């Protein structure tokens, strides 16, 4: 098959899924042609070497920064806050941030229109489209006329439907103000909520125009069915069991490991609180590998500062590492004793598979994607969202060496038997062949 690839995916599990699918399809003899907006992240796991042709569209966009819920404050912002007061300052900041996001979305839509036109004029059999950082479902889907599309989405419509507007104070990344309390209740800031709602509507509309929709879990399938009416097909991801593998009989540190961006929805604070329930004489250290930890200027983000302060006050020894290599990631899996996974309604959680392939038992919350990858009591533990319960599960695996060894072996074998990339790519190939046959 001649497959056109489109994506604008951020570093992390979504980009690894794209990379492994592209590499697997190319290895199986399919021709891959990449059509990417210039802002697509290609420094992390680049796909160029597996592509027959590789095109980029547009000029590098002006940065609009992260969400106003997670940004730190510059000196100018602090001065404006003192001059205008926090409420007016927040309203103006939200307004200009939304304007910049809309401008960026319009420019990106034009790039996707050009990409769709070029794909339609090419000899591509179909387009395989991964998600977009901005739109979730890329606008290229709505512009394609001749070539059928297969869309793979690793997330759900969280921005307006789930995260972050409706969450509790513990997940707010900023210092509390009266204005922000109203923001979460949708009372005072329709400007702030207009953007995620607009984005989710656009994503839902694009999703309905796709020929075939693939998602990474049954949780994701149900979420899309509930919010868009689209009945997606589940295509589970995999892990590289040759790369992520334990060292037999190697000692492991008394350490709990988490992997994920330092954003509120990853809930590293919850793991800190869980570790704080363990008596100090038995308490392990806590290591986080991720990104978004520093502000790029020698300082830490708001989220990093809050997490460090929380760990210090709880007496938890916290180690954080940013943007590590795959080799360092593998070493961290091999060295830790338990993997902790507590994000807010994580649709799948690719790092869970990597941890288990490395012989690392997992303690996760009994919600969303982990319910489909972890066999409770065999390859890890699924717990309620209470720090004391989560902490007891961590301590059990840290202190019961025999039980932990059995779980490590079971987790590793389960990944070999059911969760390889070869299996995932094989199922994807069947989907693409079916989509081509029903063109």
Number of strands: 13
The coarse overall form would be globular
Low-pLDDT residue spans = 63-73, 164-188
| First-last Cα distance | 13 Å
Structure classification:
alpha/beta
Overall pLDDT metric: 83
Q: The biggest beta sheet, please?
A: 7 strands, parallel
Strand percentage, roughly? 5-15%
Order of helices and strands, N to C?
EHEEHHEHEHHHEHEEHEHEHEHEHEHHH
Task: Please provide a written account of the structure.
The structure is a single chain. This protein is of the alpha/beta class and 439 residues long. It is built from 16 helices and 13 strands. It has helices spanning 13-27, 75-84, 86-121, 140-143, 158-161, 178-184, 190-209, 218-228, 268-276, 302-314, 326-335, 350-357, 370-373, 387-399, 401-418, 421-437, and strands spanning 2-8, 31-37, 53-57, 126-132, 149-153, 212-215, 233-234, 255-259, 285-290, 318-322, 338-341, 362-365, 380-383. The strands form 2 sheets. It has a 7-stranded parallel beta sheet. A 6-stranded parallel beta sheet has the order 10-9-8-11-12-13, with helices on both faces. The chain is globular.
């Amino acid at each position: 098959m001649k497959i056109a690839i489109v994506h604008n995916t951020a570093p992390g599990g979504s980009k690894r899924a794209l990379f492994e699918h592209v590499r697997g399809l190319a290895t199986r003899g399919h021709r891959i042609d990449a059509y990417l907006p210039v802002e697509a992240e290609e420094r992390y796991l680049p796909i160029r070497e597996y592509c027959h042709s590789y095109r980029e569209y547009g000029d590098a966009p002006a940065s609009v920064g992260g969400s106003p819920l997670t940004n730190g404050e510059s000196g100018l912002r602090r001065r404006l806050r003192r001059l205008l007061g926090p409420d007016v300052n927040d309203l103006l900041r939200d307004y200009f941030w939304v304007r910049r996001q809309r401008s960026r979305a319009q420019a990106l839509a034009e790039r996707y229109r050009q990409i769709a036109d070029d794909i339609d004029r090419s000899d591509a059999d179909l387009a395989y489209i991964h998600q977009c950082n901005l739109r979730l479902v890329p606008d290229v889907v709505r512009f394609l006329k001749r070539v059928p599309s297969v869309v793979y989405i690793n997330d759900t419509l969280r921005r307006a439907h789930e995260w972050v507007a409706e969450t509790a104070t513990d997940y707010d990344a900023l210092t509390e103000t009266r204005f922000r309390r109203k923001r979460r209740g949708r009372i005072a800031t329709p400007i702030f909520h207009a953007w995620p709602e607009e984005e989710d509507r656009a994503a839902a509309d694009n999703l309905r125009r796709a020929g075939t929709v693939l998602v990474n879990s049954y949780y994701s399938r149900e979420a899309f069915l509930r919010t868009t009416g689209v009945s997606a097909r589940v295509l589970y991801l995999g892990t590289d069991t040759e790369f992520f593998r334990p060292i037999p009989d190697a000692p492991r540190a008394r350490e709990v490991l988490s992997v994920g961006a330092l954003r509120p929805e990853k809930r590293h604070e919850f793991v800190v609180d869980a570790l704080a329930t363990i008596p100090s004489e038995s308490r392990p250290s806590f290591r986080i590998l991720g990104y978004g930890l520093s502000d790029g200027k020698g300082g830490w983000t708001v989220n990093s500062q809050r997490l460090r302060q929380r760990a210090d006050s709880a007496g938890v020894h916290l180690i954080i590492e940013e943007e590590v290599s795959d080799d360092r990631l593998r070493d961290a899996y091999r060295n830790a004793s338990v993997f902790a996974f507590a994000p807010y309604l994580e649709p799948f959680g690719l790092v869970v598979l990597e941890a288990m392939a490395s012989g690392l038992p997992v303690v996760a919350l009994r919600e969303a994607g982990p319910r489909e990858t972890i066999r409770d009591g065999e390859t890890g533990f699924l717990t309620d969202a209470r720090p004391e319960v989560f902490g007891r599960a961590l301590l059990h695996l840290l202190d019961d060496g025999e039980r932990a060894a059995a779980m490590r072996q079971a987790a590793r074998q389960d990944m070999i038997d059911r969760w390889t990339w070869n299996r995932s790519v094989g199922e994807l190939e069947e989907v693409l062949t079916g989509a081509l046959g029903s063109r």
